[in-house]
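Researcher: Quick test of sequence recovery. Tokens follow.
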């Protein structure tokens, strides 16, 4: 099913319309408007001044964040104390808080489902959980765990829903990655285990068609691309900069961005296999993504 959906998306890619890329000078002029931690500290007071729900522990720091790509009011935040909190950004209220880890190990990755009232959490404990709304069709309510957690064996650093909406792509700090099948009653289960690939670094990304996966090998200094259809690595490129810590594909699938511990960001044209812009961040690049 995943392969069939990928082929359909690939065939229609050229027909999709996308905004033009910002020019390099415009990108360099971007400014930081706030940190993830400031965004997550949404005021939980209602207009009347009353507290709607209890917030996450005040001693917790933000360790992961996701904003719904269609409904920007939904923001999911993972904390260092083992909890994840769903916020309504429009009303500045806390919707609910779930406990990913009872031993209070950090929630290191979070991802809202694009089409359903579901979200996933991954943690430093190596576990991945999926949560669903307690009220069908509503997102502003309590969320409950679905099934048992799936263990990945090492801290989770990447979560992304496959374009089918029926699977979750997961990668870990050790380089292991897998595709987990979603059952809305039983939870997650292993569908494809890709621990035999050459991924050994922190950087990982899924092509928007859901058919290609890129990852960095810190032993060889190469970014490799794995094809789901061919079940093999189909390309590998030596990076001009070492210590790639983050990478991402653009929504149209034609470009890729890479970031390093040294704060260097490069934009790549995958059709020509060349980089066309270099930017410098204020510090190490831990995550990177394109605007839709």
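Model:
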């Amino acid at each position: 099913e995943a392969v069939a959906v990928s082929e359909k998306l690939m065939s229609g890619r050229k027909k999709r319309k996308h905004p033009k890329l910002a020019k390099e000078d415009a990108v360099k002029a971007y400014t930081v408007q706030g940190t993830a931690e400031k965004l997550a500290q949404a005021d939980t007071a209602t207009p009347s001044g009353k507290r709607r729900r209890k917030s996450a522990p005040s001693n917790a720091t933000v360790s992961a964040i996701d904003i719904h790509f269609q409904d920007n009011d939904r923001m999911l935040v993972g904390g260092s104390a083992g909890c994840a909190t769903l916020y309504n950004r429009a009303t500045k209220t806390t919707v609910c808080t779930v406990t990913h880890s009872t031993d209070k190990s950090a929630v290191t990755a979070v991802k809202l489902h694009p089409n359903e009232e579901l979200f996933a959490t991954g943690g430093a404990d190596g576990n991945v959980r999926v949560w669903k709304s307690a009220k069908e069709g509503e997102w502003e309510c309590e969320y409950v765990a679905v099934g048992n957690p799936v263990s990945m064996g090492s801290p989770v650093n990447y979560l992304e829903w496959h374009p089918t909406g029926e699977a979750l792509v997961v990668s870990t700090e050790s380089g292991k990655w897998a595709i987990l099948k979603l059952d809305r009653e039983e939870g997650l289960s292993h569908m494809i285990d890709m621990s035999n690939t050459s991924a050994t670094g922190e950087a990982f990304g899924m092509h928007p068609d859901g058919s290609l996966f890129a990852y960095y090998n810190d032993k060889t200094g190469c970014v490799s691309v794995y094809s789901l259809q061919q079940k093999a690595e189909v390309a590998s490129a030596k990076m001009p900069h070492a210590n790639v810590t983050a990478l991402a594909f653009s929504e149209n699938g034609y470009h890729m961005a890479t970031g390093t511990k040294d704060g260097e960001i490069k934009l790549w044209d995958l059709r020509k296999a060349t980089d066309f812009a270099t930017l410098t961040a204020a510090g190490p690049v831990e995550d990177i993504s394109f605007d839709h």
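The chain has two domains: 61-191, 197-291.
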